[in-house]
User: What shape does this take?
Amino acid sequence: MVVEWSSEAPARIAELVRAPGVTGLRIRPGAEAAEADDEYWSDEPDFDEDGKPLLPPHEAGGLAGLDLGGIGELDLAHFRFGDPGATSLAAASSDGRIETLDLRYCGIGDDGVAALARSATFRGVRRLHLQSNALTAEGVRALAGFERLRELDLRYNRIGADGARALLAAPFVGSLTRLLLYRRDVSDAGVAVLASAPQLPSALRSFWRSV
Assistant: This one.
């Protein structure tokens, strides 16, 4: 099911996720937010002093009041709410059945990921998509809170070699069946770390040996 974000969206979502047969939910930014995004990204984005993109302001505080019911998949890709929205989302309630969480292109940094990793709502997540956010090695360390991860997409997050080492210290690393990263995300030094890591399953370690 797809819901466009607005002040009425939380009530609509609470109704939908309790309906028979609904197993997944996609929340899209509202029309005004999407228009602001189009205008913002038509030019080169501005960056803060830490090199993170300054995002157009989206009101996403209402995410904290969401009742996500018993759905297994939650997709918020391209809803650029940044760390404030991720922190709000971490306070949402559910029956604890969410296994797939798609947060691609949401503008989330280390603080937002840390909040989500501490949330009981997302404790059971097994597939986490974080492509094109603003994570560093610190954010990768925070991912340790997702103890049941099996698939992880960290592409286009410049986590460096320190991020690769942080990943290898995570409790889930030995259970990963899929890890999406690029050489430029971890640097040549990070590739060497992953290629020689006994913590990684052999199939993933062999991949990094061939990069």
About this structure: The helical segments are 9-16, 31-41, 82-89, 110-118, 137-142, 160-168, 183-195, 202-210. The mean pLDDT is 88. The beta strands are 2-4, 24-28, 73-75, 100-102, 127-129, 151-153, 178-180.
